[in-house]
């Protein structure tokens, strides 16, 4: 095997493996370096955090537990009688692991089909676009490339008051591996990961307390939707404590003793398990030699321009190690863009049209700007909303909570923000992404025919409501 490549990608997560496949499809001789090793201590595992211990396994657990929740609490309303419904945690975990194995194996197959060379080991960028790979035995080998793409991803943040012990105090990865349902579960952080993992175990019977330092719930989300979601989560039994600062966590007699301070003063709580989900940080440890020419900020993020170029010629960086949201699909789009730019094309990622999703029930999804952002920018806008409570399909599915909200420019009617809290919000938001990608106005959606009965009719009605013309809900009176 030649040690010289057109492209070497460091990292085989959603950014890296997609970049490698696209580069190979474009006729570039491509290699992808990945350090992740399977439980056997030998085999290479592709897919990164997302496929192995992130997006995919968490969604597998969310799906199972949602069905369990429905069987226990909602089936009776449908006229379905159930008795003695139980959860087999071991079987649930086995299914999750099976899905992960199938998908990660699929990437290996795609590498082979597209001619990507897979290199197992820890990749480190040296000066002059050389990549040093250290294998599991500590042996090193150096490869050369015309272009190097850094896609090393991120890892959970550990906080001093609650250091991980791998058993009682765990990160998001550990929370996907519980062998039994904890009676009392604490979650530090009411963000996407904290809410999703808290929901999984609450549905299975855990008493869940979510401790969040910020005063506002989901501050990045349009607050009309955030408040609606908060009410739904509280109804489901999640005890969400806002404005609470963690001061300590100590394991005694197999219990985690937590102390924190909120508006009422010092508080104490005891949990069987504590999940720390306060965010993630770039995984750039040992990835760059000092003379590589790549610069990072004090938090470990690699400096890049809007085309993902670093300050070192021929070196690019994508995904969680660069600015922007830490989202798998954002990383993948950057990977495609970089591969195509290396091949001489000139695509650009539209960072204004990257969707965000929280896979709770109801789901929360959005793209574009929130009402709060537009107010702070002094922009004039119109808003149209439509509740799922007035949607026949949502009522039939016993999922009639939440709403669709569309925000449009007051002068041009161009859609500036598209927000959904409710059933299948993760799928519905794609309609907003497509509309915004093509510069659609709210009227464009209002003039589009949507199938009946569908959840998507709520998009149609929200678009109609922007101009005060919704059919199936009373419209706001226009100011004279």
UniProtKB/TrEMBL annotation:
Enzyme kind, highest EC tier: oxidoreductase
GO biological process: 2-oxoglutarate metabolic process
UniProt protein name: Dihydrolipoyl dehydrogenase
Organism ancestry: Bacteria, Pseudomonadati, Pseudomonadota, Gammaproteobacteria, Pseudomonadales
Catalysed conversion reaction: N(6)-[(R)-dihydrolipoyl]-L-lysyl-[protein] + NAD(+) = N(6)-[(R)-lipoyl]-L-lysyl-[protein] + NADH + H(+)
Domain of life per record: Bacteria
Entry's Gene Ontology cellular component terms: cytoplasm
Binding site for NAD(+): 189-196, 212, 279
Domain Pyridine nucleotide-disulphide oxidoreductase dimerisation: 354-463
Similarity section: Belongs to the class-I pyridine nucleotide-disulfide oxidoreductase family.
EC number(s) reported in the record: 1.8.1.4
Ranges of residues in domain FAD/NAD(P)-binding: 5-335
Disulfide bonds: 50-55
Any GO molecular function: flavin adenine dinucleotide binding
InterPro entries in the cross-refs: Class-I_Pyr_Nuc-Dis_Oxidored, FAD/NAD-bd_sf, FAD/NAD-binding_dom, FAD/NAD-linked_Rdtase_dimer_sf, Lipoamide_DH, Pyr_nuc-diS_OxRdtase, Pyr_nucl-diS_OxRdtase_dimer, Pyr_OxRdtase_I_AS
Keywords: Cytoplasm, Disulfide bond, FAD, Flavoprotein, NAD, Nucleotide-binding, Oxidoreductase, Redox-active center
Active site positions: 452 (proton acceptor)
Cofactor note: Binds 1 FAD per subunit.
Gene symbol of the encoding locus: lpdA
Subcellular location: Cytoplasm
């Amino acid at each position: 095997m030649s040690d010289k490549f057109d492209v070497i990608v460091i990292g085989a997560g959603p950014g890296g493996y997609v970049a490698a496949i696209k580069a190979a499809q474009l006729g570039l001789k491509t290699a992808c370096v990945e350090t992740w090793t399977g439980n056997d201590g030998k085999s290479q595992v592709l897919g990164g955090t997302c496929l192995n211990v992130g997006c995919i396994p968490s969604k597998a657990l969310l799906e199972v537990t949602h069905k369990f929740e429905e069987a226990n609490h909602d089936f009776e309303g449908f006229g379905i009688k159930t008795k003695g419904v139980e959860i087999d945690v071991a079987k649930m975990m086995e299914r999750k692991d099976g899905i992960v194995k199938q998908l990660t194996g699929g990437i290996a197959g795609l590498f082979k089909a597209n001619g990507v060379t897979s290199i197992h080991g820890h990749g480190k960028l040296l000066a002059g676009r050389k990549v040093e790979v250290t294998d599991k035995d500590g042996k090193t080998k150096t490869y050369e490339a015309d272009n190097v793409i850094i896609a090393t991803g991120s890892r959970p943040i550990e906080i001093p008051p609650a250091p991980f012990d791998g058993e009682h105090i765990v990160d998001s990865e550990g929370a996907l591996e519980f062998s039994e349902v904890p009676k009392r579960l604490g979650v530090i952080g009411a963000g996407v990961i904290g809410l999703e993992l808290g929901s999984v175990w609450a549905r299975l019977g855990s008493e869940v307390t979510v401790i969040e330092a910020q005063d506002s719930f989901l501050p990045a989300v349009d607050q009309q939707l955030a408040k609606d979601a908060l009410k739904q989560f509280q109804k489901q039994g999640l005890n969400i404590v806002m404005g609470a600062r963690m001061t300590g966590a100590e394991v005694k007699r197999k219990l985690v003793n937590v102390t924190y301070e909120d508006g009422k003063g010092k508080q104490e709580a005891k949990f069987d398990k504590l999940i720390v989900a306060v965010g993630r940080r770039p995984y750039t440890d040992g990835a760059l030699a000092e003379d590589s020419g790549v610069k990072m900020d004090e938090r470990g993020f690699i400096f890049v321009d809007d085309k993902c170029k670093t300050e070192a010629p021929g070196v690019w960086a994508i995904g969680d190690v660069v600015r922007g949201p830490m989202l798998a699909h954002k990383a993948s789009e950057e990977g495609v863009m970089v591969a195509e730019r290396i091949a001489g094309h000139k695509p650009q990622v539209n960072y204004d049209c990257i969707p965000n999703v929280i896979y709770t029930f109801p789901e929360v999804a959005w793209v574009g700007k929130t009402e709060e952002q537009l107010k702070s920018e002094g922009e004039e806008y119109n808003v149209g909303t439509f509740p799922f409570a007035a949607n026949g399909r949502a009522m039939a599915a016993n999922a009639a909570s939440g709403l669709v909200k569309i925000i449009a420019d007051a002068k041009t009617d161009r859609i500036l923000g598209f927000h959904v809290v409710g059933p299948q919000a993760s799928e519905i938001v794609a309609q907003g992404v497509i509309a915004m990608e093509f510069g659609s106005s709210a009227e464009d959606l209002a003039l589009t025919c949507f199938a009946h009965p569908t959840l998507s009719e709520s998009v149609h009605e929200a678009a109609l409501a922007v101009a005060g013309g919704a059919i199936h809900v009373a419209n706001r009176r226009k100011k004279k």
